[in-house]
Amino acid sequence: MSEVTAQELEILSTKVIAAKEAAYCPYSKFRVGACLLTTSGEFVVGANVENAAYPVGTCAERVAIGTAVVAGHKEFKALAVATDVKPAGSPCGMCRQFIREFTNPSFPVYMYDKDGGYKIMTMDELLPDSFGPEHLSST
């Protein structure tokens, strides 16, 4: 997997922080933005969308991935997630498995805090010994 360039990281950073503004979170007040960098160089954003029936809400990461997949993208170079807390929030367990469906253990996830600082972790660090589509039998 190719590394994220400085220019791509700058764009990813700007877009993920801006994506928080689109969050619909009247209940938790916990804004989350996500931005995927596709292997073709496109950026796809998402934000969390809550619902009065709490389990029905959707996390920013899954919104971004779903949007990207519907647009025909299934290969990604990096994912960024931004929250309004410090230290930076990481993807929830459900999102970690969802992200893993379209990535591999070395895939980088950039997690931005309220001040714009970030931490990078791989999917293997976020979801050790993960299960992905390559583990399914083709028969």
From TrEMBL:
It holds the Pfam family dCMP_cyt_deam_1. Residues 7-134 form the CMP/dCMP-type deaminase domain. This is Cytidine deaminase. Substrate binds at residues 48-54. It catalyses: 2'-deoxycytidine + H2O + H(+) = 2'-deoxyuridine + NH4(+); cytidine + H2O + H(+) = uridine + NH4(+). Signal peptide: none annotated. The keyword Zinc applies. It comes from Penicillium frequentans.
